[in-house]
Amino acid sequence: MCREFFLRLRSPPFSDLRSTQLPIKVPFRPACVSLRGSQAPELPRRSPGLLVDAARWREVSRSLKPLKNAQKQPISSVKRHTPRPLRRQVSLNGPLQSSFRLLQLSSPDGSRDFLCSGVAIDSPVKPQVCAFPILPGFHPKNPRHSSIDSRNLSLFTGLREWPCRLFRLFSTKAQVVGTEKGNSEERRLRLQAVLDGGASCVRNFSIIAHIDHGKSTLSDRLLELTGTISQGAKAQFLDSLEVETTRGITVKAQTCSLLYRHPKTGVDYLLNLIDTPGHSDFSHEVTRGLTVCQGAVLLVDGLQGIQAQTISHFGRTRRQNLERLLVAINKVDLPAVPEQIPSVKASIAALTGEKEEDVLAVSAKTGQGIDDLLQAIVERIPPPEGKENAPVKGLIFDSWFDAKKGIVQLVALKEGVLKPRMTLVAAHARKAIQVKEVGILHPFMTPTKALKAGQVGYICSNIKRTQDACVGDTVFPQNQIGEPLPCFGPPKCTVYAGVYPELAADYEKLQVAVGRLLLTDPAVEAKAEVSAALGQGFRCGFLGILHLDVFKERLKTEHGVSVLVTSPTVPYHVTPKKKGQPKRVVCSASDFPDFFEQVEEPMVEATLVVPLKSVPAIQQLCMERRGEELRYECMPMHTSSNDSNPQQDSVLLVYRIPLAEVILDFFDRLQAVTSGLVSFDYIDAGLAPADIVKVGFLFNGERVDALSFLAQRSRAREQVSPLQS
Taking every annotated instance into account, which residue ranges of this chain make up the domain Tr-type G (predicted)? Predict the structure, then answer.
């Protein structure tokens, strides 16, 4: 049995493909289609015999479970048996050759839908479209017992049909892992030997940098060069959240253990890498990562030089008393960067106190200088200190929920040896933890016999409730509780908003989703509240507007809950009019009292790096936002007569501004007046008296608290005027 489909292409990107219709021969049963190329061609939403509905791609792809196990040789079938989504990819043999996009197809009569996974093929010609049969029983929503038959795989270019050999198969949730080198017995024995050794062969470090300076790309190269993942793996491998892939930013610190052999000594080392976010809204993730490290790699863009969050992250390393800081200039493969390196090194030396000759030059994109960086990590960052013969003592610094293993906790073991079946106690929470499994992330959860002092790994236990995860707590053996380790503590939320389900019936679903996200993001505060207009929901605290947006998007993409979010506010400290009553922290307009003695608002110290020509406009904007200038410093950049795009002189400005003026559109205004050439970061700067009033709304004579907001008295009428018209 053979059916023929016609795939209509619009502006095909293939140089040797000219026809507007491609007959796709599918033996046995209609099945899957894959398009080769860096990007799939633009397709019409509907055409005869074909349905490509982009709006449903994400919905359908969630139900397709990627394959879990891989075989290194070509096989006749690959069985699907994974009961849950995994970040895995089948690797049959050969390197990855290109990227693919998921397609949803239907038969000509529209009665059946088929889901397409990307397939790379080996054939005598450059492949364009390939098809392979799906055995009976396959369905995207029930893939546990279905299989893919590769014996009759064929390629049709429009001129001739070619036999093909299947060697890659993956879904949209797949990632490239498991090269032959990575799966070899020799490598497994090397890893076990390092784990059995002492802390002298362990290095714990973080990568920190300003936004878009190349942290995640550098992590990719480190994973590739140490054989942890295959060459050609998906970009930003450690950015596993869908919101990170969609937005192209890192929002969660990710940990991975790398096995590295020093080229000069031949000694194997276990490098525990923590890739951190760059945006200021996720600075708590950076602090948590630095807490368990002995060193860090500060990455600086060779074109942009030192930026606002470069300065901020350097300050965090000093506050954490980090033992060693390595500084690397990134993007040296760009033509203009080599001429900028001397001035960038001078700026780095002035900021950090590092010697210019100790600053490394790398290209995270091409891998240039990465070998030198790996050697510097081993040679300059000290190993962790700890005694294996002492009682277990470890810091829990992260946690998440796994559908199969339950709540998983990341622990940095300071002393002792941690094994399964041990019973631990959290020092502050006094929660008993029965350890079921221990292991490392390499790059996925890899069980081990034990974790030893100085190592970073995960533990699976009997914990069932998300509030018992004990992030930031110290664990000890039962009946041997000692002095807790210094912990990072919960961050101070700066933005509050109400979060309500769009449908009242989804409240319980929202409750579960919020609990799961609080497990992975302890920086969020959540307290149940009831609104007369919006029903049951939560009053949530965040570290910024971006943090709020990411939380809302994760509720939608990871848990399928659509929510309504009220206007964000900052926490005001209100002194009651009646003497003797304590100050109140008000986070919403509905809780703001009608009578009070004084109101104090949170202030921030904003750091801006802007072009010299934009300084007057920036100063005017900061004055409009009630800002007070604290610092003005020139940051000259090296220029060259041969440089077609020389760097402009930059100015470092520091202002003290009310947080309420920053959280809404301040950064957008900064981008507008500087044509996008601004770097911005801020930290807490205490409280200051403020003249705040509550703006309410009446409908049919009744007050609607859900629409109320707080405003500066001098600007309240200005904000209300557009609403009246």
Answer: 200-385
